[in-house]
Amino acid sequence: MNCDKLSLIEESPFFESFKPDYLEYLAQNSGTLKISKGGFIIKEFEPAHALYMLINGKIQLTFHSSKDESPRGTRPEKNTTQLIPLRTISDPGYIIGWSSMVEPYINRASVIALSNAVVMVFERNDLESYIRQRPDFGVALMERILWLIGRRLRETRIRFVARLYEKEILTIRALIDQNRDLLSDESPLHKIPHYLENRLTLSDAFRTLELLQTHGDELERNLATLCLEILEKVRNDLTKAQA
Question: Phi and psi of 151, rounded to 5°?
């Protein structure tokens, strides 16, 4: 079983820079947890005590949006909250629960299983025990925690920018729809609204428009130019969000 765990850990991007003996310790001192569809892996505002790594299944990160003035990190009133989905994840090796390694050790989001799922569990007590033996492991772990936090912050900024410019995206959708009958069925322009609505493919939208601006037919070139003009501020803000 430890061999299986070790292979799974080695394939996680989070652990890619860890020394072999670190990975061996993690494999030997981790557990597994099965969660049924609809079950919580972690709950927002509750004490955080472990890191989790997705082995299989589909999970969703969510958080509560509150209309009251409750400080962040305190449980808001039920009648003033809305559950907001952050991201759906099905990538094996994805790490959740970084709040378990950062004071005040309170979960900052909930994670729900959208299907039956299995996660690997790294208890904070076990990690801290190894850190006392091997301070170099503690340095390596915190470096990756900071990497993970930075990555999540960039994802959040990009998502915010994408939502902020919903009007521009609707304008481009209408522009393409108005010219749908004149465009060939194979025109990449038909994919642009979908690219723009999914933050993971925003860069594909700009890349496609730039290619069409140069290599498309006359209509595609004109529409691509108009779309890029509409999206100019969006691209500038996305560039800042990714920095």
Answer: -65, -45
